[in-house]
Amino acid sequence: MQFDASLDYDLDKPIPTTATGLRQGLTSYGDPHFSLFLRKVFIKALGYTDDTLSRPIVGIVNTYSSFNPCHANIPQLIDAVKRGVQSSGGLAIDFPTISIHESFASPTSMLLRNLMSMDTEETIQAQPVDAVVLIGGCDKTTPAQLMGGISANKPIVHLVTGPMMPGSHKGVRIGACTDCRNNWANFRAGTIDVEDISAINDELAPTGGTCGVMGTASTMACILAALGMMPLNGATAPAVSSARLRVAEATGKIAVQASSTRLTPQQILSRESFLNAITVLQAIGGSTNAVVHLMAIIGRHPDVAGTITLDTFNEIGRGTPLLVDLKPSGENYMTDFHNSGGMVALLHELKPLLYLDAKTVSGRTLGEELATAPYVRVPRLSPTNCLHALDSPLYPASSLVVLRGNLCPNGAIMKASASKDRRLLRHKGRAVVFANSADLAARIDSSDLKVDADSILVLQSIGPVGNPGMPESGLIPIPRKLSEHGVQDMLRLSDGRMSGTAGGTIGLHISPESSDPDSVLGIVEDGDIIECNIDQGALELHVADADIKKRIEVRKNTSGAIGKAAQLRTRGYRGLYMRSVNQAHEGADFDFLTAGGPTADSRA
Ligand code: FES
């Protein structure tokens, strides 16, 4: 039936505040009918009819950027989503938000994650959309979109760009970005030459798409499926595959359904959804970054914030084995995980550990979704199978561990499954301290550096405030004089982050960070004894309490910590970041965006 456009001109009938489609969220001109009239004037410049404009509007968030190869396929994905929307009776309208790529954001992509979440929230809120497809992929984009989506609280469905294919060098498969780091370390150690490293550079990212290992992008894609915020088969299909386009078309159809069920992320997501996500995070040996992102996402949800802490990750980890054999914890690539059944197979395998009543974006529960997606187990010895059964895991439990102790009273994170020298998971040694990234760069390869294989490398001042954006410098390089003698792993500690694609025995996200005036990390000195014990979840500085107190007082009177004055002097977004960011254990979100922050809506 044709839509009767004359209804929009009936001045005796107020436009209801519950209006949908083009009639919702009108621009303020003081006369709502005129606002609608004007809106239709402008959108008709694009050739739409009144009939088409009467349909439910599905917004498609376009994060394409020529600086973002991880999002290279977004134009094709948008076309496929539009097919799905239009074949289901909706009107698809795409619009841009910020795009962030790991290697093209200085000083670090994480600085922009909260900005992208604000961009996502505000554009969803401001524009007349009944549901939104959020297309993201590269590390910070998907968490930013879910943070913003939860806060905007209109119906959303996620679509990721998908992983890239692996490349090959001299008959060995390679892929971004675990092999970027391994090969660079080999080049530093002199075990491969300049011709090899140059040829490898050509092959590490042979197609568009997100990093092809279990880095942060892949981890967050798996988490979105576990949370029920996208189709279960939506996490692993390669970026360049036809399967990825079919996922996109299906996502468009789901978004039209969501526009009529009106199920919002705050209604779909529950504490149980997030417990499922943490179970999946442990079972895939996911990125340490995902812990920060999940805490930020949880912190946006008014009913879940505060019910899950870092200790929840440990509790779930103790009962969850590592099942997916992917780099950096294992040997394979995301395409292998996809060919092993991907998230459908993993979730079936994890069923005894999951809350199957958790809701999903389709309106069905996770259990109901799994019932419609049967699990065909690929034979264990098949070359493409990288999924272990629950009773024969790759690593028994706790792939990600939360550490506590006087060095990190609010916690630190370690990816134990990615340790290259498991002896270091229970280790006591002398600290070699670097005051910041510049100090590290200046001295790490110095022949004078007093360091041996048992030393513990400590890097200060790369936390959320100390180095805004908390850079991924936590993978402190092995001093060249040791790597040349075959040392491949050392215990390394910092208040910063590390790429999810990296491996080693690395303690990260130490909270409070060293630039906090009361931080214990900030007063560690060369030669101090530090002890890490993964079994006890402990990270301790063996310095007497009285001496720690004395050092903290001395430091407060010098320039060690970043004071409020420095934060107030810093202009623009960076200044806002320094003044408003919370600590890593809270997700490094802005205090004014969390569910526990200010509640008055500035749009009201
Ligand atoms: Fe984009 Fe790795 S750089 S996912």
Automatic annotation (TrEMBL):
<dbReference type="GO" id="GO:0046872">
    <property type="term" value="F:metal ion binding"/>
</dbReference>
<dbReference type="InterPro" id="IPR052352">
    <property type="entry name" value="Sugar_Degrad_Dehydratases"/>
</dbReference>
<dbReference type="InterPro" id="IPR000581">
    <property type="entry name" value="ILV_EDD_N"/>
</dbReference>
<keyword id="KW-0408">Iron</keyword>
<keyword id="KW-0456">Lyase</keyword>
<dbReference type="Pfam" id="PF00920">
    <property type="entry name" value="ILVD_EDD_N"/>
</dbReference>
<dbReference type="InterPro" id="IPR020558">
    <property type="entry name" value="DiOHA_6PGluconate_deHydtase_CS"/>
</dbReference>
<dbReference type="InterPro" id="IPR042096">
    <property type="entry name" value="Dihydro-acid_dehy_C"/>
</dbReference>
<feature type="domain" description="Dihydroxy-acid/6-phosphogluconate dehydratase C-terminal">
    <location>
        <begin position="386"/>
        <end position="588"/>
    </location>
</feature>
<comment type="similarity">
    <text>Belongs to the IlvD/Edd family.</text>
</comment>
<dbReference type="Pfam" id="PF24877">
    <property type="entry name" value="ILV_EDD_C"/>
</dbReference>
<protein>
    <submittedName>
        <fullName>Dihydroxy-acid dehydratase</fullName>
    </submittedName>
</protein>
<dbReference type="GO" id="GO:0016836">
    <property type="term" value="F:hydro-lyase activity"/>
</dbReference>
<keyword id="KW-0479">Metal-binding</keyword>
<dbReference type="InterPro" id="IPR056740">
    <property type="entry name" value="ILV_EDD_C"/>
</dbReference>
<dbReference type="InterPro" id="IPR037237">
    <property type="entry name" value="IlvD/EDD_N"/>
</dbReference>
<keyword id="KW-0411">Iron-sulfur</keyword>
<feature type="domain" description="Dihydroxy-acid/6-phosphogluconate dehydratase N-terminal">
    <location>
        <begin position="55"/>
        <end position="368"/>
    </location>
</feature>
<dbReference type="GO" id="GO:0051536">
    <property type="term" value="F:iron-sulfur cluster binding"/>
</dbReference>
